[in-house]
Design brief:
It contains two helices and no strands. By secondary structure, it is mostly helical. The longest helix has 33 residues. It starts with a helix and ends in a 6-residue tail after the last helix. InterPro entries: DUF465, DUF465_sf.
Length: 70
């Protein structure tokens, strides 16, 4: 039981870290798109990274929230 609580705390801190990185990427993408000579390759890389983070966040959230069968 205690090990499970520690695991959930680790996942919760990982989730917070991923959300913060996701927000930072969003700001970086916004800043890059506001420039006239935006590097399209860099922009695509940032967007792909942001999507991977979103998938990781969803996976951890699904693990933390128990399934309720109605």
């Amino acid at each position: 039981m205690v090990a499970n609580d520690v695991g959930e705390l680790n996942e919760a801190s990982k989730l917070a870290q991923l959300r913060m990185e996701h927000r930072d990427l969003d700001a970086a993408i916004e800043a890059l798109t506001s420039t006239l000579a935006a590097d399209q390759l860099q922009l695509a890389r940032l967007k792909r990274r942001k999507l991977r983070l979103k998938d990781e966040i969803a996976l951890i959230e699904d693990h933390l929230v128990p399934d309720i069968i109605a």
